[in-house]
Structures are given as C-alpha cells and as structure tokens.
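Researcher: Sequence recovery benchmark, item below. Answer with residues only.
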C-alpha cells in the first residue's frame, strides 16, 4: 500500500451542496424526477425524456421499444465499445451484429457497415466514444436508405455538440449515462431522449412498468455518493485503488443488471446538474487542448473536444504496457479501456470474423484523465511519460473531424 497522491482515470465531482440536495431528494421522489426530466427536455431541445437507474437500463428500454415496432432482430454494434452495450442487446432478447471500427476515428468502418446492415437489422447503435462525435450525417443516410433506426450511445458525451447539434439528440433516440466517471454523475443513472412521439409512447409504458427504488435503496445510493465524494479526491484515491476486491478499472460482461427508475436520492443529486456539466465540459476541453499542444504538435490541429478521457494510441502493445507500468508508479491516472473486442465475449462471438481495427485499439489505446482534479503539474508529468511512446508520424493521433 502506497500513501501518495493518486489521480482517478475518470471523475465527476460532487459537492456538499449536491449531497444535501440528494438528502432532500429522498422525500421528493417521483415529483422531483418529473421536474428533472422537464429541465433535461429544455436543455437538450427534445420532446421526451425518461430517467432510469443506469445507461444499460436506458439502452434496454430503447431496444424493447424498437422491437415492439418491428419484427427485425439484429442490432449492429461497433466491435470496440463498452461491454454494457451488448449486455443490453441480449437483455432485450435481440442479436448483436458487429462491425469493425477505424482505429483512427473510433467510428465505424463505413464500407464494412454497408455490408453488415441487412434485411433483419433493427437498428444501428453508434457510440460517441470519449465524447468524439460519430459521423452522424453518414449514419443517418445509411439508416434511411435501409429503413433501420439510429440509436445514439452518448453515455460518454453528455453536453458535447457537433455543430449546433447536441450528441444524443440527432438519431431516432439516444441516451446518456450518469454513472461514476461520466461527464456528470449522481452515482448511477441514465437518461433517454427522443423527439419521436411514437417511440415515446412505448417508452413511457416500459418506463412506467419499472419498479420504483425503495427508500432503503435510495439511502444506499446517497451513502455511496458520500463515499465517492470523499475517496475520488487525489489525496485519498489511493485507498480504493489499494483494495483488490473493488476491482477498479476492470470491465465485466453482465446481463443480470437491475432495471429501475432513478431513485429520489439520485434525482436530488442532479439538482445543480447544469452548472456542473458546464464546468465539466470547460475543464475537459481546456485539459484536452493542453494535451493536444504537447503530444500532437507535429500533426494537424483539430478543435479541442470535451473528452471524457483523452485517447492516445501507442506504437504497439509493448510500448503501451511499458507506458502503463510507468504511469502506475507515478499515480497519474492513465488507464486502458475495454480489455477485448466484443467478439471475445462468448455470447457475442462470431468465430468466422476478425476485427483488426477494433483489435488495434485494444492493443494500443491509453487514455489520459481530463477531469477537474487534473493539475498543471499532473499534465506535465503525463505528457513527459506519454510522448516517448508516440514516436511514428501519425501514431497517437485520433481524428476527431468527420469527412
């Protein structure tokens, strides 16, 4: 056990005021949730919003809704994304169909996507990984040409815009995550957004059928948030890092997650969400700009995004592993992401196909922290650690502009 300043790879701070609002939320319940949903409608400029207990629940409800409106059974997913996405697909009783991704953009390989979409495709789930916008114009054209629905996984991109459009609001339906380490958090939670009256009618029925969290569950949510506020600080984050059974940073595939509405405590914790989101986006954008200036000074300068985490690609897996070993010694919050492509999950596996773009990301990706706890000295140390492992021209440069 090492007693030292340690950065979390991802963080979304809460304040004492937020915790007090969470306590008040215990008594307000459903009424406060309706007020939150109206506030979210106004911010995102959408007609319908539903708040649930997680991003996985949000996607599950979306897919249950879509399959009521169509007999199609396949859901097209990027081969590299969060394991929660295929778990929601299977939970909804549908079949994942994978498409490779471009390791330069983290978006679909569109030539392959055109071949993957078929007569049994219900929808395409596009993921704005790290807050990097997918090519929504191209996706919309493909979906319209094939009569399939477009679902935006904006779990990591709440508040991020592409032009004048907020990510998550462009497709037929989208969702955000309010989990720990997202743009903002209330401990756990998910938000569904759509402008479709038809989808909203069925979504409302599924949402109303969800159980209301018990008072005990809401109290536990609030206690977890209190612990998170304390332990996410760099001066104390070494404590949870040192506890093996917490398995921080590990990714697991699980289809047995609970489906429920957002608890009163979680709703209360969201009371000042607009101010927190604005601050989060500004801090992440500023930190990303500094990383870009140092690590990509020889490459094309893209407009800085409000990255949830700042992605870089090492020359290869040995360089990545060497970098992570050094970073662990320094406690500066570098991290890997998902341990395998989705094709390595038994319930999703297609033994006849390979996904080289997704595998390249698995082998080479390292993410840098962008949250509010990252100091100027942290960024200097991080850049000094990372830069030697990005030696070849173009290596480490993730393209964020769409053509």
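Model:
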């Amino acid at each position: 056990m090492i007693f030292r300043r340690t950065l979390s790879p991802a963080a979304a701070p809460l304040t004492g005021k937020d915790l007090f609002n969470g306590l008040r939320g215990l008594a307000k319940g459903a009424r406060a949730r309706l007020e939150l949903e109206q506030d979210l409608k106004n911010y995102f400029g959408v007609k319908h919003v539903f708040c649930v207990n997680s991003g996985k629940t949000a996607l599950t409800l979306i897919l249950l809704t879509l399959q009521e409106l169509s007999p199609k059974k396949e859901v097209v997913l990027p081969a590299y994304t969060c394991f929660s996405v295929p778990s929601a697909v299977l939970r909804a009783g549908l079949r994942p169909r994978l498409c490779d991704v471009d390791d330069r953009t983290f978006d679909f390989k569109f030539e392959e996507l055109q071949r993957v979409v078929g007569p049994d495709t219900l929808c395409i789930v596009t993921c704005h990984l790290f807050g990097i916008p997918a090519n929504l114009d191209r996706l919309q054209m493909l979906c319209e040409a094939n009569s399939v629905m477009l679902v935006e996984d904006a779990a990591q991109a709440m508040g991020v815009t592409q032009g004048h459009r907020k990510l998550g609001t462009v497709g037929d339906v989208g969702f955000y995550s309010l989990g720990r380490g997202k743009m903002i958090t209330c401990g756990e939670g998910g938000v569904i957004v759509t402008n479709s009256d038809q989808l909203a009618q069925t979504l409302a029925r599924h949402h109303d059928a969800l159980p209301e969290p018990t008072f005990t569950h809401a109290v536990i949510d609030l206690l977890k948030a209190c612990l998170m506020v304390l332990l996410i600080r760099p001066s104390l984050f070494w404590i949870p890092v040192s506890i093996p059974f917490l398995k921080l940073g590990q990714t697991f595939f699980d289809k047995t997650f609970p489906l429920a509405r957002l608890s009163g405590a979680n709703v209360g914790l969201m009371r000042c969400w607009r101010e927190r989101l604005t601050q989060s986006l500004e801090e992440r954008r500023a930190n990303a700009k500094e990383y870009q200036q140092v690590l990509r000074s020889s490459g094309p300068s893209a407009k800085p995004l409000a990255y949830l985490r700042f992605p870089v690609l090492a020359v290869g897996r040995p360089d990545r592993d060497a970098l992570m070993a050094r970073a662990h010694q320094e406690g500066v919050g570098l991290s890997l992401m998902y341990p395998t492509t989705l094709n390595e999950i038994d319930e999703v596996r297609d033994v006849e196909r390979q996904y080289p773009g997704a595998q390249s990301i698995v082998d080479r990706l390292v993410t840098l922290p962008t949250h509010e706890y990252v100091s100027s000295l942290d960024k200097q140390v991080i850049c000094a650690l990372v830069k030697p492992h990005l030696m070849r021209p173009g290596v480490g440069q993730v393209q964020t502009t769409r053509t």
